[in-house]
Here is the input.
Amino acid sequence: MHHQAGGQRSAPRPVPESCDVRAYLQDYAVLVEAVPFPSLVVDHRWDVVMANSAFETLFRGVRPHATAMPGENFLRFVLFHPDAGEILGEHEAAWCLPMLAQFKTAVDHHGHDHELQAIRRDIAHDPIMDAAYRQGLAHWISAVGESGTRLDGAVRLLLHPDPRRGSSECRIVDETPPALRDLGHRRLTMILREPARRPGATVRRPRRPRGEAAHLTVVPAARN
Here is the structure.
């Protein structure tokens, strides 16, 4: 079972004190590892609690980053890692905006969480992303509806490093059991479909220079 993708975790993720909970998570990790598709468990901050080998394979080529490794915090990876657009197809529209909406929900429920506040500060450091979060996000939600902000059931494009898969769609499935939800965790699995070339689909971006942020380049237009 891999608890980190694309780098080494600096310290082990804290384990709940309850022996029953610890045993449950250990057994659940075996279940996650057995899935052939990328699957991860995150907490309310989007810190990765566990992820399987398929998840690690999907993100194995990303360069080291101080705060945005995919196996550390998936939200930070989507928003801030310069390599995110190489793997997450149609990166801004299909991944960044929905994840900003997910972040807003997390802040609404856990506004005083120090890690969420740190992410908010990092968003604020980029003027375009900050404008997207403060202004453009509301217009986008109005356009797509609340259902468009949900991850469960969403179909997204992946640019898989395995050439046999290449540009493939995946359906994101939220399969969080009650026991996991009671811990404040959430499990997401990316069900890979057969490779398909869609007209107008975003192709792999040139790799950004090291250190360059993967922030949004556009803000959704305001509706009249």
In short: DSSP finds eight helices and five strands in the chain. Residues 19-192 form a domain with the Beta-Lactamase fold (CATH 3.30.450.180). The radius of gyration is 17 Å.
